[in-house]
Every structure is written in C-alpha cells, then in structure tokens.
Amino acid sequence: MADVGFPGQHTTTTTVTSSTTVQTNIRFDPLYIRTIPGILKVVQVACSLLGFICIQFSALNNAGKGSYFSWISMVAFWFTGILLGFYLFHIVEKFYKIPWLKIEFVFCSLWTLLYCIAAILAVTVRDNPHSAAAFFGFVATAAYAMDAFVKWRAVRAGGLAQGTRVVSKQTTSAVTTPPPREGY
C-alpha cells in the first residue's frame, strides 16, 4: 500500500517584484492639503502659531513655562511648515530616497510628548493667554499623535511619503509525487 500523506516532493517558488514610480519635477499641488496628512500638518502649523501668539500676549511669558511653550511651538511651526511646503511642491517626492516617513514619525512622536508637557505646564499658569495656549497645545498634541500613528502605519507597510510603490507577489507551486511503491 502506498503511503498517504505528504507528497514525496513539493516545490514552491515565490517571486516578489517592486516598482517605485515618482515624478522628480518640482510642481505645486494644492490637493495635498485635502489628504489626511495634509490636514494634520495644517492643524499642527496653525495650532503652533496660535499657541505661540497666545503665550506672547501673557505678562508672564518670560517665565520658564512660557519660554518652554514658545520654544516647542516655534520648532514645531517651522519644522512642520517647511515639511508642508516640501509636500505641496513635491520636493519630498523628488528626494524619495530620504526616509521621510521615518523622520516624520520620530519628530511627530517626540513632539506629541513635548507638546503634551508644554500644554500641561501652560495650564498651571493662571492667566487667560496661557489657558488659550494650552488649548492649542492640546489640539497640536492630538494632531501630532494622529500623524505619528499614520506615519507608523506607513513605515510598517513600506510606503513612500509621496509617489507610489507597487509590490506584486507571484507564487507558483509544483507538487510531484513519486510512483507508488510495490510490495507494502
């Protein structure tokens, strides 16, 4: 009787191909602002600027808490504003070999923590400008946290910051069974 179960020979061939499609010309594309990362960047820039302005209107803005909030909000404003410009003009796509998603993930994760600390410190100061700045700080914290999550998912999926990457996987299997053995 022939053995029943696994075949005598099993061959599996997997072919994975990947192609990256980018346009390396610089061009203005206002449609980026309508995407989720674009909306998050606009919210981050606006909250950073508004929070900074609120702190500057406080009579206590030279205190350590106000200075810390000002520093955090201005670094966030300039970094995120420049990145927003890079995305709007497809400069990120032009330099697609730079790991933009990882850089943004690290920045957004770090600024989520730092903005949360700055907003909590601003709440402890009992004046209206600090309270308003704290509100914008908490909104910015939420926006940076969402952006960090979006970037984390994109990094895990192997995506590009801009442009497209097409990954196709083709699997072929061949099963060969030997002739049955006589005499069992």
Automatic annotation (TrEMBL):
<feature type="transmembrane region" description="Helical">
    <location>
        <begin position="39"/>
        <end position="59"/>
    </location>
</feature>
<dbReference type="InterPro" id="IPR008253">
    <property type="entry name" value="Marvel"/>
</dbReference>
<keyword id="KW-0472">Membrane</keyword>
<keyword id="KW-0812">Transmembrane</keyword>
<feature type="domain" description="MARVEL">
    <location>
        <begin position="32"/>
        <end position="156"/>
    </location>
</feature>
<dbReference type="InterPro" id="IPR050578">
    <property type="entry name" value="MARVEL-CKLF_proteins"/>
</dbReference>
<feature type="transmembrane region" description="Helical">
    <location>
        <begin position="71"/>
        <end position="92"/>
    </location>
</feature>
<dbReference type="GO" id="GO:0016020">
    <property type="term" value="C:membrane"/>
</dbReference>
<protein>
    <submittedName>
        <fullName>CKLF-like MARVEL transmembrane domain-containing protein 4</fullName>
    </submittedName>
</protein>
<keyword id="KW-1133">Transmembrane helix</keyword>
<dbReference type="Pfam" id="PF01284">
    <property type="entry name" value="MARVEL"/>
</dbReference>
<feature type="transmembrane region" description="Helical">
    <location>
        <begin position="131"/>
        <end position="150"/>
    </location>
</feature>
<feature type="transmembrane region" description="Helical">
    <location>
        <begin position="104"/>
        <end position="125"/>
    </location>
</feature>
